[in-house]
Design brief:
Oligomer: single chain
Number of domains: 4
EC number: 3.4.24.-
Distance between the termini: 62 Å
Organism: Collybia nuda
Structural class: alpha+beta
GO molecular function: metalloendopeptidase activity; zinc ion binding
CATH class of the largest domain: Mainly Alpha
Number of helices: 18
CATH superfamily of the largest domain: Neutral Protease Domain 2
Keywords: Hydrolase, Metal-binding, Metalloprotease, Protease, Secreted, Signal, Zinc, Zymogen
GO cellular component, one term: extracellular space
Number of strands: 25
CATH architecture of the largest domain: Orthogonal Bundle
CATH topology of the largest domain: Neutral Protease, domain 2
Radius of gyration: 26 Å
Strand content: 15-25%
Shape: globular
Length: 798
């Protein structure tokens, strides 16, 4: 018998299920997210910092990949050996607008990837303009061995201990097995309880399962099963695994997933019959960095990396390859040339929808809108998809006489597959979607009646055609908008077919309307480039009739923005850079900021998130977004407050800071009534119009208005910043994005905005953990070049 299960483990697991029940109508899905700190990680955006490495800029005609290779070699120096090397990731790319090449590097030790050994190098004209690195710089371990477990700090247990401390600060009872009663602070306390419940039901599982330490490190099945115990929300699955551990191990079917031609990458396996996984699990061996007990040095821990797709989650997890099999880190991917033409594309479709700019039914009425696709972003429209890339035709043959593209009459196209998902399952191809026929006029009524609670869901489902059409329309508009600001094929956008323009294909967004897996929420799963993103939109039972989240554009935009920020940060093939803490919070914050910017108008106004769906004037955040500190007092130091551990709370601080910064840029440059750039000319070139400044040679196009410029800087900053960025890293990346785009003409304007909310150059944090914590100091100073004499500092201290 491989596992000797103690009674205490079962009791602890069952008791954990009682933790965190509350009267809130929001159904929260279980989600895991934690990992080790990287105190040695850096992001350098100053030429002085880069020069100190001894790197000499190369000529503008030198291949930027070569520049990056030389730079990495110079930075690593004596660390390079037969046992320690690196590889340039294939998702590196050049931004066609800015001319910056974003090179992504992965560290290799003993022939294995260091999963969190990342370097991103930004190259322009032969120069490295910035770089971030979390490369391991310690002693190389003996292959296929691990340091004694008791010598290391284990993120899982430490994370759970800190969560319990935070809960205690909020005056919540934390006796295992007792239901927690939430009082006046229930909103913040409930989130912490949910985090604890999700992550900490089985903190001692690795010790409780008596797996012999002599087990073969090549057998990853025990480690995978232990992860599934921690990950599954299903008590029956937990009890089945714990009661029949060996049987589940033996049931697994493993197949080698390596390529025929060796690519130099780690061998990968596919594992089928994994309990509660909806698709075969991907498994590969790697290293991950873990601090020692003192926290003064890092060590490489041999792990199995798993990609586990479940009903409500899609995990990237690292579990120690040797017993005890501890979970070291886990990220939940669920969280938001000439123009090609097709002469057979039919007349544009039309939709009866809340048009772009109307956030929700409280702001305006529906109207008939044309399929206003952008010919650069969606060259053949929203309803055309190549036969070869259509998943509904997989395995079928079709006549070449039909042409290359299939023109659909439903909400099924190259960018988005939109349909109902009332059963809340993972299937989507055969789910219902409206068919508008040859006319492609998606005109459906929307007039839900007030009913009792029992019939409210059925009443909402009567208008599913309207809902799906709206979701399809909004999602395609977002796709086209983000494309024009640089979220294109090579940077990892979501499309089934990429028109020969690079990047990985077959990853259109699966957009599920009225998803039956929950209420009062929405989520987005972002796997690496080449795998479909999955968005689930829910009904909200906050009013009668029920309110449909699909009809609130801000929620849809927020979710789609998770796909944007995850693919742009750290490169399109690395979905693990925004998992938790400040970086995870910024993933939420960018969604709020972009959604708020899209709905804003020339006449300034404050905005709440999710106000209509939640039936709350203040929305679903702690504060509405406002320049008035009496309305939204958020500053960098707000992150120290109890209740600001969750990524949504962290995110709203970041979104508020960006909102304040953007208003300063708007004050300087004015406002554009449309965020969409001009349509290209017949030769594919984009005219300046009243949108861009006059073109200057080969320099990048620069939006001339404040709101469009800020939109561009935020997206460009995502491309520049390092994997697992802090607030400081993301701030510096935005400032450098302006340097690249405008020569730095907004340097002081940007710093003034950040400093207004405490993120000036003198801001600091001490004792920060990967998930939060620490003591922050607001920084209100400005760089010396921006200070006005004799008025210094410009902004008062706290």
């Amino acid at each position: 018998m491989r596992c000797l299960l103690t009674a205490s483990l079962v009791v602890a697991g069952l008791a954990g299920n009682a933790l965190g029940h509350s009267p809130s109508p929001v159904k929260r899905r279980k989600t895991l997210g934690f990992g080790p700190d990287h105190p040695h990680a850096v992001f350098h955006a100053s030429p002085y910092q880069i020069k100190t490495n001894g790197f000499t800029p190369m000529g503008a005609d030198v291949d930027p990949i070569k520049v990056a290779e030389v730079f990495v070699t110079d930075v690593l120096g004596h660390q390079l050996s037969e046992s320690s090397s690196f590889r340039i990731r294939k998702d590196s790319y050049t931004d066609v607008n800015t001319g910056v090449t974003h090179v992504y590097v992965r560290q290799i030790v003993n022939g294995l990837e260091v999963a969190d050994g990342d370097m991103n190098i930004n190259v322009k004209d032969g120069m490295v303009i910035s770089y971030g690195s979390s490369f391991y710089n310690g002693a190389i371990p003996t292959p296929f061995t691990n340091l004694d477990s008791h010598l290391l700090r284990h993120p899982h247990g430490e994370y759970c201990d800190i969560l319990e401390t935070e809960l205690a600060v909020l005056d919540n009872s934390l006796l295992r097995g007792e239901q927690i009663v939430l009082g006046d602070r229930g909103g913040k306390g409930e989130h912490l309880v949910h985090m604890h419940q999700s992550n900490c039901q089985f903190p001692d599982l690795a010790n409780e399962l008596a797996i012999p330490s002599s087990d073969d490190v090549a057998d990853f099945r025990p480690a995978l099963l232990q992860f599934m115990v921690a990950a599954t929300p299903n008590d029956e699955v937990v009890n089945s695994i714990l009661g029949n551990f060996d049987a589940h191990v033996d049931k697994m079917v493993i197949q080698d997933h390596s390529d025929f031609a060796p690519s130099g990458e780690t061998i990968e396996f596919l594992v089928d019959r994994v309990p509660d996984a909806v698709n075969p699990v991907k498994a590969r061996m790697a290293y991950i960095q873990v601090p020692n007990k003192k926290g003064d040095s890092m060590h490489l821990n041999l792990v199995w990396k798993f990609e586990v797709e479940m009903q409500d989650n899609w995990y990237e997890a690292a579990v120690s390859a040797t017993a005890p099999h501890r979970i070291i880190s886990v990220v939940d991917w669920a969280s938001d040339a000439p123009i090609p033409t097709d002469p057979s594309t039919p007349e544009p479709a039309s939709y009866n929808v809340f048009k772009w700019g109307i956030n929700d039914p409280a702001e305006g009425d529906r109207s008939m809108e044309k399929e206003n696709y952008d010919v650069l972003a969606s060259p053949v429209g929203w309803h055309s998809i190549p036969y070869a890339h259509d998943p509904s035709l997989k395995g079928q043959r079709w006549s070449k006489s039909k042409g290359f593209y299939r023109n659909t009459t439903t909400t099924w196209g190259n960018n988005v597959f939109a349909q109902e998902n009332w059963e809340g399952q993972n299937s989507f191809i055969d789910n219902y979607r409206p068919d508008a026929g040859k006319s492609r006029v998606f005109d459906y009524k929307y007039n839900p009646k007030t009913t009792n609670k029992t019939d409210a869901q059925e009443e909402a489902q009567k208008y599913i055609n309207t809902t799906i059409a709206q979701l399809f329309y909004t999602s395609n508009m977002v796709h086209d908008l983000y494309y024009r600001y640089g979220f294109d094929e090579v940077s990892g956008n979501f499309q089934q077919y990429n028109f020969g323009r690079g990047g990985a294909e077959n990853d259109a967004v699966i957009a599920n309307a009225q998803d039956g897996s929950g209420y009062n929420n929405a989520n987005f799963m972002t796997p690496p480039d080449g795998q479909n993103g999955r968005m689930r939109m829910y009904l909200w039972n906050t009013a009668l009739p029920y309110r449909d989240g699909d009809l609130e554009a801000g929620i849809v935009i927020h979710e789609l923005s998770h796909g944007l920020s995850t693919r742009l940060t750290g490169g399109p093939m690395n979905s693990g850079c925004l998992g938790w803490g400040e970086s995870g919070g910024m993933g939420e914050g960018w969604g709020d900021f972009l959604a708020t910017t899209i709905r804003s108008t020339k006449e300034y106004s404050d905005y709440a998130m999710g106000s209509w769906a939640a039936n709350r004037v203040q929305g679903i955040r702690n504060y509405i977004y406002s320049l008035d500190e009496a309305i939204n007092p958020s500053t960098y130091k707000t992150l120290d407050k109890p209740g600001y551990w969750g990524v949504h709370a962290v995110g709203e601080v970041w979104a508020e800071i960006l909102w304040v910064v953007s208003q300063g840029v708007i004050k300087k440059h004015g406002y554009s009534d449309s965020l969409f750039p001009p349509q290209p000319l017949e030769d594919g070139t984009v005219p300046a119009g009243n949108f861009y400044r006059p073109a200057q040679g080969n320099k990048p196009l620069v939006p001339k208005h404040g709101n469009t410029l800020m939109f561009q800087l935020v997206l460009n900053g995502m491309k520049l910043q390092t994997c697992r960025p802090s607030f400081f890293d993301a701030r510096d990346a935005i400032i450098q994005a302006d340097q690249v785009l405008t020569g730095g003409e907004n340097f002081c304007t940007l710093w003034e905005g950040f400093a207004k909310r405490g993120l000036g150059p003198d801001a600091k944090v001490e004792g920060r953990t990967p998930w939060g914590g620490g003591i922050r100091t607001n920084g209100y100073e400005l760089p010396l070049v921006c200070q006005e004499e004799p008025k210094k500092p410009k902004y008062p201290k706290d």
